[in-house]
């Protein structure tokens, strides 16, 4: 044949412009919804894995009355301070099943009069025993932090080598930690415990606001357990042996996030399935109407020598083209919205959120495009088959 069936399909798509847009947008809604849900789930899962790997603790021991605040600080990064006696560190280390334990001290920056950044979390860690921040310093910085040096989370908007002021004292930024998606780590400033204690002592003379924290106080104890014990067992031992503390199991905190997201995901998936079925029905009805409108065209094509599979391919080409275009539109809108609203999503869901890695992102895009393609193909399958079975003379007569 001298006539290009692909050319006919493209002219048909342009000729019925509004109808083509309607089909593409219906597929875009399905692809965009699926892309958004999958991306959010992958983002949270990646953030949890990377954040807990950086945290490196099986348990967090905190004052019992601050358990909920500690959980909120860990997941949502809400700035908060609480303190307990440093003597508890020795007692925790003596509990059965505890392999190692390291203290951390939480402080909060105040108004701009004394600090460059207000309401930032300052975390003091002990370089001698710490297993969360200290290993990063050893591997990446390759030297101990100086008495006036700090590390910053990846979302703190300062450059390495810059200077930050807290409570009247200047600190040089020696480096920043990798992005984890957990605001507890990404929005914090880290300094050796000795540096933090010196800042506390000198705040009375160098800052308008004095820090009132005792020399021996700490905020939390991070615990790594002996592999022979479970975190839940050791948590029970700690709470039994030491009054007034709560041992927060990291895995339980993560599981609570996953359960929370599962409930949300299940609801959204139900809506997504409904949207997909509606899109299938709508596209199927539209292409059935298209076949009825084009009976004379189909009959002429068949009379001119077009084979049945060519007529079948004509309808399927139109459906798959519109579906892929709709899929790309949906993915673009969904991805742009997620990126623009990533902070809103993290705050409203109260969960860690980290943009997926490039390879994960590519897999999600390919899967969503495949679903978009499949949507159009399945919906147009019967109308395309029906058009290919038309007899040329009868189709021409009915189309007149």
Structure description:
- By secondary structure, the chain is an alpha+beta fold.
- The protein has two domains: 5-50 and 256-399, no CATH class; 55-249, no CATH class.
- The chain has helices spanning 5-15, 17-55, 67-76, 88-93, 134-141, 183-186, 193-206, 231-241, 250-293, 295-303, 308-340, 342-349, 358-388, 392-399; strands spanning 59-63, 84-85, 98-108, 121-125, 149-152, 163-166, 169-176, 188-192, 217-218, 220-225, 245-249.
- The strands form two sheets. It has a nine-stranded mixed beta sheet, sandwiched between helices. A two-stranded antiparallel ribbon has the order 2-9.
- A hairpin with a 2-residue loop joins β6 (163-166) and β7 (169-176).
> What is the count of DSSP helices, taking H or I runs of 4+ residues?
14
How would a textbook summarize the main sheet?
9 strands, mixed
Strand-pairing-aware structural class = alpha+beta
Order of helices and strands: HHEHEHEEHEEEHEHEEHEHHHHHH
Beta-strand content: 5-15%
Low-confidence segments: none
> What distance lies between the first and last C-alpha atoms, to the nearest angstrom?
24 Å
Q: In which order are the strands of the major sheet placed?
A: 6-7-5-8-4-3-10-1-11
Number of beta-strand segments? 11
Average pLDDT value?
80
The helical percent reads: 55-70%
From the spread of the alpha carbons, the general shape counts as elongated
| Rg over C-alpha atoms, rounded to the nearest angstrom | 31 Å
Quaternary state of the chains: single chain
Number of domains: 2
